[in-house]
Design brief:
- The protein has 179 residues and is α+β, with helices and mostly antiparallel strands.
- It has a domain of 115 residues.
Length: 179
């Protein structure tokens, strides 16, 4: 047996090693897990926002592509594009105040008449863009106009169709700046 040093101010008493606290480890685990979730969430928000905007923009390309396909069929059937004009449809923008789906135009099947019927084009579900058409036998311009985040900054996709030697050609122009 080893002798104990004398007690006093110059001789500290031996101490027991501190007990490991389960509570401390639980708290550290919770804090660490929360910090990890915050970091992952903050890195995912910008990328998910980017993909959401990209999916919103693809709506315009999808519907203008439908107008292009319909125009190709009509060129074969009638040797020309649909003649006529259709103003922005629907007539009110999609960022209407008081709309149940702010930023989306409600489905209005009755709005797609005239030129739209000749093209066989309509949108039967809520959507983000308004569409217009202006055409002659050998040239047309269709537009998709929208304000994806309702900040009054409009973007426009333009589909232009031309006839060259009886063959239709189409060009889609995307907005220079994305909303």
């Amino acid at each position: 047996m080893q002798p104990q040093p004398p007690a006093g101010p110059y001789y500290p008493q031996p101490q027991q090693p501190p007990k490991k606290s389960k509570t401390l480890w639980i708290v550290l685990g919770i804090v660490g897990g929360a910090a990890l979730l915050i970091v992952v969430g903050l890195t995912m928000i910008p990328s998910s926002t980017k993909y959401m905007k990209k999916s919103k923009r693809s709506e315009a390309e999808f519907h203008l592509n439908a107008i292009e396909k319909a125009s190709k069929v009509l060129v074969v059937e009638t040797a020309g594009f649909v003649v006529g004009s259709a103003p922005l449809t629907p007539d009110e923008g999609c960022c209407r105040t008081g709309s149940p789906q702010m930023g989306k135009c409600p489905a209005e099947p009755g709005a797609w008449t005239g030129v739209w019927e000749e093209l066989g084009f309509s949108i039967d579900e809520s959507h983000l863009f308004q569409y217009s058409y202006d055409g002659t036998t050998d040239h047309f311009v269709a537009r998709a106009v929208g304000d994806l985040d309702c900040d009054s900054t409009m973007i426009t996709y333009t589909l232009e169709g031309t006839m060259t030697d009886g063959n239709p050609r189409f060009e889609l122009t995307k907005p220079s700046a994305m909303d």
